[in-house]
């Protein structure tokens, strides 16, 4: 079963990756290393390759590295200034006794200081642990405790959610704010930053040394602490070049918060390793602010998420007409399945195609994507990145032929692969039950042209009357209906059919809940997809439960439906 849509041929243009098929045939990760200084010097530090090497380059040092804005700040920093501020930040951390390998958490809203703190910690060889600002005390405690964090950089407002006295390993709490009283544990990050020396001797590390510890989104359960190493930069760089198509002169905006892996791999590492100007916007989503940001900075490459595109679409097509988005040339999406309807909508309102990309916290960087020079099949995630081998395996680990739904797996050993799940060897081993393969936990199929089609989380695949139905296809059909803004689909146990399909739906602006509408939506899916795929039950909700990274939490829908405990909700967006 698949939604029939016309493939969209490449639009043509001057792209970094010209011929996907040829390149994929001959690609070798060890060649990528030649782009970096450490290839010659043997001295590795991601922060050096991302910032310092451009700050030392006469032609690049005065280029804007970071544009930052929110409701009260509007600033920009060149590569030279980013080097200065991250050197100062490295000195602040080092003088307080933070050393290589220590875990330094960063728990603050987006601000330039967040980026200085992160880069400074990387410069001294510490492992950074980003935390989303909305985390409450329990979530902060779990993560700091699990990783035995030695330091945290936070703000006065967030400090009350850091249970310092319950965390014996936590020695230093840096506070970014005014009038901070110091006492040996609590330290004034802002004034220390101002006073710190501008010269810093970077700590050279091994490419296998820890860089970042990311806790997953918590869509399926308790978040896991995923460790990535400096060597991951090879893939951050190369996917930035070929998938994001970053080049000299680009202004790039990744809308993800650095609390999630997209906000670091593609909000910090990939753009700066490629030497492009990076836009960061603080504050929450609003269609007007987002379009204003694209216009103001003349953004050329934009990386966002399906939920954001769906919300922009729900806001209507008129609002976009008030903004000049003529500098945009490439748009990408990640985090959830990208509904074909959203791709179609993007073509219509932006005149550009939204390119899907698939990867996970654990994979560290993009693994499957639609390259700009490729024919896009809307609804498909695209093809594996050169150097990546993907496959669909059955439950015994055998490769399945095309068009059969199974476990999406990846051949072990890409540069940005996680190196461990912190303090949980068992969990880590669980990903590698079939020798040589990393099993993602996602269900997908591959078509005869080698395109991958996401079906759902393995646990979310629905068995109804003997048919396997991926929730994504039903959801995608649902959002094609003019009244439907967002949809989440689950299997509900049923004595006769095994499971029935149940949909939770939020409506677009201007639509009212009614029985007629419910039936109309049901019939729409039945006629557009298949009778057995039409939801037998539809519940309307004002909004669907989502993670703060914007993913619909089907396990919460299921728990609501079946009256089960909802499990860890620390990552749920409850605004
Ligand atoms: P947890 O592992 O804690 O349950 P999570 O899996 O949502 O949470 P992330 O690592 O942030 O945590 O998300 C990775 C998952 O997001 C993938 O396994 C996949 O299910 C989904 N995903 C990411 N990109 C895409 C995409 N382009 N299409 C479909 N699904 C995607
Ligand atoms: Mg996951």
Automatic annotation (TrEMBL):
Q: What SUPFAM superfamilies does this protein map onto?
A: Acetyl-CoA synthetase-like
Q: Which GO terms of the cellular component aspect does the record hold?
A: cytosol
GO BP annotations, alphabetical order: acetyl-CoA biosynthetic process
Upper lineage ranks? Bacteria, Bacillati, Bacillota, Bacilli, Bacillales
Residue ranges annotated for the AMP-dependent synthetase/ligase domain, each copy included: 58-421
Record PROSITE patterns? AMP_BINDING (PS00455)
Q: Per its record, how is this protein called by name?
A: acetate--CoA ligase
Report domain AMP-binding enzyme C-terminal positions.
473-551
Q: Which family does it belong to?
A: Belongs to the ATP-dependent AMP-binding enzyme family.
Source taxon at top rank: Bacteria
- What's the EC number here? 6.2.1.1
Alphabetized, the UniProt keywords read:
Acetylation, ATP-binding, Ligase, Nucleotide-binding
- Please give the start and end residues of each transmembrane region: none
| Keyword check for Cell membrane | no
UniProt-listed InterPro entries: AMP-bd_C, AMP-bd_C_sf, AMP-binding_CS, AMP-dep_synth/lig_dom, ANL_N_sf
Organism of this sequence: Geomicrobium halophilum
Which EC main class describes this enzyme?
Answer: ligase
Q: Which GO terms describe its molecular function?
A: acetate-CoA ligase activity; ATP binding
